[in-house]
Amino acid sequence: MPEGHTVHRLARTFADLFGGQELAVTSPQGRFAAGAALVSGRSLGASEAWGKQLFLGFDDVWLRVHLGLYGAWTFQTDGSAAVVHAIGAPRRRIGERETTLSGPERPGPLPGTDTWVAPAPRGAVRARLLGAHAVADLTGPTACEVITPAEKAAVEARLGPDPLRGDDGARDAFVARVRRSRTTVGQQLMDQAVVAGVGNIYRAEALFRAGVDPLRPGRDVGDAVLGEVWDDLVLLMHDGVARGAIVTTRPEDRGPDAPGILAAGPLAATGGTTRRHERRAPVPPGAVPRDESFYVYQRDGLPCRVCGTPVLEKELAGRALYWCPTCQA
């Protein structure tokens, strides 16, 4: 499931491609036909994200989209703007799928006209938003509905603070919510009513970087430590927005020369035979390879990058939890 930084990137993409334009909204699949008719022909006046929820504002109504596990937005342009081709799931990179920059599938406008013709929808497209120079297709979302401002406010009221929004009092609200419960801090960080936008990767990595045992009750974690976790989430998630990918490792903890990898011995540098491995995909210049991007997430059985202790995994509330028993004792 795409995490919060992905949805904030989507909100920016919609503002850049479609902001202020009257959009033709359709439902090629047919399941969103009634909702599409309510907003088609209206101008996109706002594009907002709160956690994993995307809100597109059309006059006095909002289009709410939650991608969930299988949803994705696919973009095409007439070549006048560079945009990531697809964001969502399935994805090549953890957090969102970023393939190639989008360009025109048709080389210029139709002969004798100035009108760009968007490519035909592919697959079961729930909603299509067509502007003057770009088209966005939505497939497989958990939620896609037109709601009123009051209904939007009700959705937001159920959400915890979002580290990417910069709202006043968000840090204190997060600390207070975690501290008032005996539920484990690892489970609380996955609760969108406690903190919005954090998923399994940010949960595992932020707790590792703070040295917090994910199985510790929230009420037993100090205010100062939880404040540091919040500050780190703000830092990491803003970096995710900028990169278009989640990277939580510090440069000195990457690669075969990381302290924990060296301490664990030569077999650890390649992962030995303790773990499945994917074929390493080409990495753009300056980017961090996926297998060097995380401290503990999906590294069960491999040595901790800092101390060399094997990373542990267990199921917690239906999701895989990863942590280092030494660094997070």
Characterise this structure.
The chain is an alpha+beta fold. Helices cover 25% and strands 18% of the residues. It has 8 helices and 11 strands. The chain has helices at 4-18, 33-39, 149-157, 170-179, 185-188, 200-210, 223-243, 259-264, and strands spanning 24-26, 44-50, 53-58, 61-66, 72-77, 86-88, 125-130, 134-139, 143-147, 312-316, 319-323. The strands form 3 sheets. A 5-stranded antiparallel beta sheet has the order 1-7-8-5-6. A 4-stranded antiparallel beta sheet has the order 2-3-4-9, with helices on both faces. It has a two-stranded antiparallel sheet with strand order 10-11. A hairpin with a 2-residue loop joins β2 (44-50) and β3 (53-58). The longest helix is centred in the C-terminal third of the chain and has 21 residues, at 223-243. The radius of gyration is 21 Å and the shape is globular. The protein starts with a helix and ends in a 6-residue tail after the last strand. Mean pLDDT is 89; it is low at 90-112 and 272-279.
